[in-house]
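The authors assume throughout that readers already know how a fold can be written as discrete tokens. A single example would do more here than another paragraph of explanation. An entry of this sort, consisting of the sequence and the corresponding backbone structure tokens, reads as follows:
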Amino acid sequence: MVLVLFYHLTRSPVEATAAGLLSRALDLGWRVMLRGTDPARLALLDERLWLGPEEGFLPHGLQGGPQDADQPVLLGTGAIGNAAHALMLVDGAEPLTGEAEALERVWVLFDGNDPAALETARAQWKTLTAQGLHAKYWSEDSGSWQMKTERNPPD
């Protein structure tokens, strides 16, 4: 059963949080689709992931290339193109209809200092939990990550 994790970012940038989660996903042997809404923002994220420390290298590529299906982490705005086990949503990106249920994990990363991003995340929470998906909401308000609430835990 899929687990949807909402990350309310107030101190950490999306790039740093994404890199940490992606690294853990790759350690599990998962492929990940990182979906955004703005190709320019994804290109910037792509550059930042390439600039990470060598020992923390995250193999990835931008969607639309000849190697999409082979990418451990694929960054794009479209449908999953790399047989992903997990989906990371940034900048208000949405899961496609029926997509989340087939995955191991969905992460929703949103800027808690942006009122529009908060409203989008609230709407996503309502939609995904109404579908019966197991969801947890994490916040870093206190300086460290704390789970604030959970819906639809497995029996």
